[in-house]
Amino acid sequence: MSDSLVWSIVLPIIGSVGVFAIQTRHTPLIGCLFSLGTAVIVASVTYRVWRDGPLTHELAGWGAPLGIDLYADGLSAFMLASNGLVGLLISAAAFWYFQGGQPDKGDEVPNSQSFWPLWLFLWGSLNLAYLSSDAFNLYIAVELIGLAGVGLIVITGSTDSFIAAMRYLLVALLGSLSYLFGVALLYGEFHTLDIRLIAEHAGQVEGGLTMWAALALISVGLMVKTALFPLHFWLPPAHSSAAAPVSAILSALVVKATFYLMLRLWFGVFSEQMTVPFGQLFGVLGTCAIVGGSVQAILQRRLKMMVAYSTVAHIGYLFLLVPLTIPFRNGNDATWDFVGYSGGMYHLLSHALAKSAMFLAAGIAIASMGSDRLRHLRGMAQQLPLTTFAFGLAGVCLMGLPPSGGFVAKWFMVNAALDSGQWWWAIVLLLGGLLTTVYVFLVLRYAFLAPQPPHFTAPSRPLEVITLLLALLSLAIGLRAVEAFDLLEHGTPFLDATMEGGDP
Amino acid sequence: MTLSTEAIFTLTAVVVFCLGLYGLIASAHLVRKIMAINIMGSAVFLLFGSIARRNMLEQSDPVPQAMVITGIVVAVAATAFALTLARRIHAETGTTQLPEERGSE
Amino acid sequence: MSTTRNQAKAAEMATDSTPWAAVRSGRSLRVTTAVGAAVLASVLAVVAFDVVMNDKGGLTPQAMEHLDESGVENPVTAVLLNFRSVDTWLEVGVLVLAVMSVFALHRKNSLTSSPPVQRGGYVLSRMTGAFVPLLVLGAGYLLWRGTHAPGGAFQAGALFAAAGVIVRLSGRNALQYIQGWLLRGVIILAFACMAGIGILFMTAGRNFLEYPAAHAGTWIFLLELVATISIGAGLWALFIGTHPMPLGRPPSRTANGTDT
């Protein structure tokens, strides 16, 4: 039965409204239990897709085009599973993070009471975005993700976070309206909202102007939300002013959701428009993001801002997937390049793990050392060995050194670039790795300096362990990637095209 | 040549959408920005309305109309939160503009 | 003064976050934006005109075909509460999420500490007394009307909220002393009920939110009734919540990384 698709959306959301209505001392524990339940369901969905292929659930029993379908193929399952793994560990981290130092003063609500409903709702909305096959339903999912993300930023209660959240909210609303305009055009053209049905008919449209306009509106709308250079200006303040687990959630999971939607729509609905110039354009934007984001990261003097700019750079890597997937040389009858595509997707997973570890490590360091200026991190290696180790390991993954997941991803992407004769993307990939090395070592340099006697507060040990676990996982996934690539092949968004191309 | 109702709706929707976009970028006051977003939203709803009305036989298409109703609720909720945030920023910093835009108006 | 300090800090933050800060000022920005918007408008006008004027059909035939099985007479209501009921469920969810975010912003879980409004005069309170029952009656009418004509839960809920807003503006603060848990419970009620019913149908072997055709009308009416109350309460809470509320302690004003 396909009920588990529904459960993976409904369970976290029910948990969210439950802990919102009934606030008790045990909210963090209940939140963690719901996270665990969601992760289990998501794992079962992933396994089912891996074993049997795509799953469908017709919501309200009508079926597309009149109703709304949930649809899980390899790509959806991959996103669900990555999200579930990282989300579960971040939940555990948040359990420890929001515990200490939050006394219940008067009628003021402690952070944990605000965090859990918003985070569980966000998780449900992310799962909805990965599963829904209806363009308008996806608009609601995107709005939910945006609102929950903004709500999570403001729970720190700092003025900076309010300003960053306001900017993020305006940008998110603008992005979703641009998307919705594109959806209106698509509905006008195809009189259905189901993206699989649209994809079936998309080839028959005469005069591609409408399609190009819809593509532009939808892409710009989602690009703004994914913070692709040059539309990334809102991201660093927003991600750096949030509490550590929230930064981890935003950088590791939220920006990936809109990226996923772009892939889904580009290679499904707009497969006719996926031409070489289109791919090269996004390659160039990705390159700008890698170089610009990395240079900005190197220039930062604050730890979290640096990590946030690193996210801008790594979003650039994701977009290199586009030119590497679109067939470069062989004209129209060529197939999509699965190697480049799966390399990019693997980068998404390893970045999610490594970046959440990095943000949590940064949060621990800032809380313990009492400052987020880089130069105040002297002696961090001595006082916080576990956290420094986790930060370093996450850095290894982001640099793309073996045996990390980042290495596997980069290996596949470089291979795809060389095989298709696009050597320039290989250079960009390697250059990005070097730039990452610079800013990671900037942090480690201070960390290994002789300690100055600061106001040091001991961190929560379980929190350190979870952070280290995330970092270790980002390495471990480099050891074995076969299953993940198998999963991605189960009904990729362009399965039909691949089969047509491979079948003379 | 006379324009049909749907044509007028469509053109209005496009013009209003772009006016909203201009307002969002060019005005610095947060409440103006939030209003601009709402204006853009209304424009998209109007476009859905004109899509619903075309080729009306005995009944206009109910699906875009339902989407408009849903969209309005989403817009209302987001606007309410945005206004709350704007008022909070005003209470904390004494200004109603984002820092990078201060002094441009 | 802490305000100026904040402003200085915020300005500092802006310079290292937006490299465009210098570009984004004054007249040149407006002219560029205006030209850009005009160009965009002309392109979009061509495209949208083409899409709307070409007869490409719609979902009307499918919707009319299944209208009899939907349990309501109005096609828009049928789409909202049956064919695409999940959209409506999530729409109520957006409202709940907005309330959650507003409460998170204020670090409150009720509205009891929102500042009172000055008491209104004789005329105002008399008119409130006359209007509020009318609004509630109107809400009931819209709800009932929704089954066979445009109207329904959201419109009725908006009237309900309007009644609450008028009560508030006329200087009666009674409504906001509702206990936090009760208020939150009412706001999430419709959302939770729809999810619960959806799951109930699903465990009975149907799909999520797939009503049994014979009783669809009854279920829809019950859900609309609950949704009216929840939407009314949610919108009202958002209105009150827009006020900046007094805090238990001043918010922390550190720059980045406010990890406490």
What is the distance, rounded to the nearest whole angstrom, between the alpha carbons of the first and last residues of chain A?
36 Å
Q: How is the quaternary structure best described?
A: heterotrimer
Q: What summary fits the major beta sheet of chain A?
A: 2 strands, antiparallel
Q: Which stretches of chain B are low in confidence, meaning pLDDT under 50 for 5 or more residues running?
A: none
Helical proportion of chain B, percent range: over 70%
What descriptive keywords fit this protein?
heterotrimer; B: 105 residues; mainly alpha; Helix Hairpins; 74% helix; C: 260 residues; 2 domains; 10 helices; 68% helix; 0% strand; globular; disordered C terminus
Q: Could you explain how this protein is built, in words?
A:
The complex is a heterotrimer of chains A (504), B (105) and C (260). With 504 residues, chain A is mostly helical. Chain A has helices at 3-21, 27-52, 74-97, 111-131, 135-154, 159-190, 195-201, 209-226, 235-241, 244-267, 276-299, 303-325, 338-369, 380-383, 385-399, 405-419, 423-447, 461-476, 482-489, 495-502, and strands spanning 55-59, 68-72. Chain A has a domain at 275-504. In chain A, helix 13 (338-369) runs antiparallel to helix 18 (461-476). Chain B starts with a helix and ends in a 12-residue tail after the last helix. Chain C is globular and about 55 Å long. Mean pLDDT of chain C is 80; it is low at 7-23 and 247-260. The chains are: A mainly alpha (504), B mainly alpha (105), C mainly alpha (260). At the A-C interface, helix 1, strand 1, helix 4, helix 5 and helix 6 of A face helix 1, helix 2, helix 6 and helix 9 of C.
Task: Give a summary of the structure in a few sentences.
The complex is a heterotrimer of chains A (504), B (105) and C (260). Chain A is mainly α and 504 residues long.
